[in-house]
Amino acid sequence: MEIHSIVMVKQVPDTANISGQVMKEDGTVNRAKLPAIFNHEDRVALELALQIKDQYGGSVTVITMGPPRASDILRECLFMGADDAILISDRKFAGADTLATSYVLSEAIKKIGNYDFVFAGRQAIDGDTAQVGPQTAEKLNIPQITYAEEILEVTETYVKVKRKIDGGFEILESKLPVLITALKDSAFPRPFKAKRIMAYKNTKTLMELEKFTEGNSLLYIDQLKDEYQSKHLYIQTLTMDDLKLDELRCGVHGSPTKVYKIESVVLSGGNLEMIEPNKLGINHLIDKLMEDHILG
Amino acid sequence: MKIQNKDVWVFIEQRNGKPADVSFELLSKGRKLAENLNGNLKAIVIGNKIKQLAEETFKYGAVEVLIVDNPELEHYRTMPYSRILTELVETHKPRIILYGATIIGRDLAPRVASHTRSGLTADCTDLKVSTVKYLKHDYENLLLQIRPAFGGNIIATIISPEVETQMATVREGVMRFEPVPNPVKGKITEIPYVACDYDNIIKIIEQHRQENKVNLKSAPIIVSGGYGIGSKSNFNLIHELAAAVGGEVAGSRAAVDAGFITADRQVGQTGVTVRPKLYIACGISGAIQHRAGMNESNKIIAINTDPDAPIFSVAHYGIVGDVMQIIPMFINEFKQKLR
Do the beta carbons of residue A132 and residue B120 sit within 8 Å? Predict the structure, then answer.
């Protein structure tokens, strides 16, 4: 049995560790100052795909849509065990909401073709929307199992999955192909393999090779690409034209949702009264609460 | 684009025939949005033997319920539910659809939005209808979808100016339950269920569900711990304080992520919104997502070692100090008073 899985991954700003410098005076976020990390649930999704490959044979292709620097997480995927990694990158993808993103990803998946599973994390920490998975499944016209907790059984034609539901769980059986989104605890992502780090640390995307040729008239991009490809060090890079996409459905044009306004947060409460952190202060606080019939 | 329809739809979620609270909260909000739009509030119910449930929506102001009632639809399944709702949206083109940001809502809404190419905004903390100017165009009566963004450091207002249907999901507890004073019996429109092979591409083999025992929304006192508590064993102190004052235990997202407490007790934008009589925030720094879920509490006590923690901006009483010392002191003093 050969199972081919495609895993959608995303590089995200580390929103959990936002420091003072990251916030601008006007309350907006300075994205450039945020460290970029591999979205954890996507890494779990990759682990699920790799486990299927280990157990049943086959291959795993990882794709990401993002700026050129997103190649960092693709290399990490290769270090973990992915067979192929593809960067989908174009300036025209900038400003994409979940609908425009799912359009690009679904078209890339159609181009790759011949898949049994599409995996993704349930959601990315920069928006927490959980929308790209289901929207991609809809565009591929395949079923979806979101909030997957465990893959129970895989055959050539179907998969059995335990998934979370509100207040419990259910076990579903789906025909293949299917799109599955993983929760953070669905699997424990494997560490990098030293051998694979050595093998793939010098892999480059098209944009990275183009950087080499800049200001060096002796290097030709096509030659360089061929050379890297022959050494299995080229990370396939797809642009809007490569995928023959409709520009009006990409990036900001293809996004029905628009950010109308951004405000820094002002949530004011009651008048703050400071209580001394000692017995006397606490005593006084409890008295007040009891007087107001809030406690006691 | 000329938009004719002004209707507001609420997807009514049911599990084993029982409606989800959030659906009625959304009807309460949807009624106001429909008034502002000068349109009708309609409820959408999909399930098996759901007529009685459909009638309940009139109490919250629905003027019409569209129901698709069939034994095949007893349990939520992505394929038939999303297909049916997509067909209804394509036929009727409502102006707004609201869904609970539950596991079902988050599975269903994006699928429908994708097919109909509608705008969809997740986890809104407020919704308004307003006329806006965007890129030099005037748009009448757009849905303003307000949500914290970027790790909660900013509040974003999202609009979907060029689409026919604007969709949003909202967490449980964010909108208030508001039954109408004099409910009027509305219209029930039954839509026939037409089976489709593709609906059964996924089968439910087993389903296990427990009634949610935790009810943070109706607890008068909530004691909540954050990442600052430090460890799961330290978190016992939160349980002790809750037991002493007769409150429920809750936590911030950071506390949930750290494994100190289960996700069903998470307060905040991606958890539950609460409005208790007393909220005691212990070792919670107070990211906006958390504050958005508790700032309407009647009284808030914040205990934190950092005097600049944002939680103090919404608190009524602030104590700068170590929770590990303050909480035992509080329990002790309180017990003495009760003697």
Answer: no
